[in-house]
Description:
The chain is built from nine helices and two strands. It is globular and about 45 Å long. It has a two-stranded antiparallel sheet. It is about 70% helix and about 0% strand. The chain starts with a helix and ends with a helix. By secondary structure, the chain is an all-alpha fold.
Amino acid sequence: MFGAFVAVAAPLILFHYGAYHWFMRDDFVFLADRSGRYPDLISAYGGAHWVALPRVIYWVLWQAFGLQSYLPYQAVVVTLHLTVAVLLRLVMVRSGVNTWLASAAAAVMVLFGPGAENIVWAFQVSFTGSLAYGLAHLLLADHEGGFDRRDLLGLLFGVAALASSAVGVSMVLVVGLAVLI
Length: 181
């Protein structure tokens, strides 16, 4: 049921709500800040955020689509946003929340999330990406037994969270705390 809700919400968010958006403000930082042929993966954005993964995403999208359409850039952030909603539901259910209640709370996240504008603003691939990768890291780290392939995959998601924005630091700390508990 929740999967169907997400599947219906995806095109509505992308093609209806996000239809009038275009590149703005910070989008141009990633599009115009080129020191060479490949994106600069080391420098911080705004002095605090390591944004290597969003820069790579923008670089790939630039190579494929240029500035012809904002839709491909939006599709990435909408996909990450919906992934966050699904992962939050999984975290809630795993934590013992009633399935219907978890689905209702996650459904609110699908529609309102981190602010209406940010759901379809492509630049938020950094914040939303950190959140999605961090939640995936949390879910993969939550298991019995010793270190295995799930943990290795979880660590890769943790690095992706760190490489997307400063939110990744919080997410990795949350995962570390959860593993300790």
